[in-house]
Amino acid sequence: MxxxxxxxxxxxxxxxxxxxxxxxxxxxxSSYLYWQDSAPKQLRLDIALSDLMSNTFLRADxxxxxxxxxxxxxxxxxxxVIEANVSALQSTGRCxxxxxxxxxxxxxxxxxxxxxxxxxxxxxxxxYQLFSRDDALHRALVTTQRDSTEQLGVLSPxxxxxxxxxxxxxxxxxxxFILQGVLHMWLGLDHVLFLLTLLMLAFSPGRGTxxxxxxxxxxxxxxxxxxxxxxxxxxxxxxxxSLIQMxxxxxxTLIAVSIIVSALKVLRPYNPxxxxxxxxxxxxxxxxxxxxxxxxxxxxxxxxxxALFGFNVGVELGQLCIVLAAFPLLLRLQKSPVLxxxxxxGSAVGVALMGTFWAADRSGILAIVLSLKSVVN
Length: 377
Prior knowledge:
By secondary structure, the chain is of the alpha+beta class. The chain folds into 2 domains: 3-24 and 188-376, no CATH class; 30-169, no CATH class. 56% of the residues lie in helices and 17% in strands. The strands form 2 sheets. It has a 6-stranded mixed beta sheet with strand order 5-6-2-1-8-9. A 4-stranded antiparallel beta sheet has the order 4-3-7-10. Strand 5 (97-107) and strand 6 form a beta hairpin. Helix 5 runs antiparallel to helix 6, helix 5 (189-203) runs parallel beside helix 7 and helix 5 (189-203) packs antiparallel against helix 8 (272-290). It is globular, with a radius of gyration of 23 Å.
């Protein structure tokens, strides 16, 4: 076996070892909290059924669905989990709470269970630690209403408490959502993989034989990242403000397809126009993916527009950090075209395989295959 093939196989195996763990396709999960000063002893909590299945005893049936009757039968046990992890506090201590299942709702085509929490005393603050032990990426998006004015907040394992007595300033909201945008970019490994394939496309050796200057890949990198940034910013804003809508399953599946296509183009580099078309066209899709958790909350009220702006800035900062981290390595590889080709091809094989797995999983094809396999066995 030639050294080139050995390098290719080793690099692909390394990439798969990085990206094939159980959390590889996991993006930060979200629940939604709603509190009004007109009902200080009550709180509405919406939890995704998928999160309940991932973090509690709740399981789907053979068809992969959780039916209403199943939820009703599990209500008492689930209520205990919620009551133990979502607390109302006042100066004298913790308020006694009771959680009740109220119904079902949808956010971005994902089914959520609706819970009503009631306390025996007015809450001064809310302490939220639901799923924090099993899911470090989980957060709660909080909407509080005081005197007909709505404000947003984010609760997470690193920031579990919300002070209801003193409303958050617009600056606080801005910084909270900048952080969420950065984390969303870093923890959304599908977005990271697509960005890395764009970097490889910009630096792919052998683009021209006409004596282009050595800094041409740097110029190409700037063009590619700029077009990707413009594209996903457009759809992030439009989708978050409900100006365009698309099924989350469709978006996530197409994002996986974008990873496959970009990886295949790394294996066979095309001209710069095609690379820019990839970065802009698929960037529009990734913007729809970025907007998922915000689209149900953001309307044209001041704090929500600030949250949208902060989230978008956070996504761009997260993206910039990835580019800056990869840039020195790319410059070093550029000095050895043969090594660069081997590393890029091996990485592209691993990325394409991961994208194929995600596409099969998100489209439902993988579930169908597994169910057929279980029937046969």
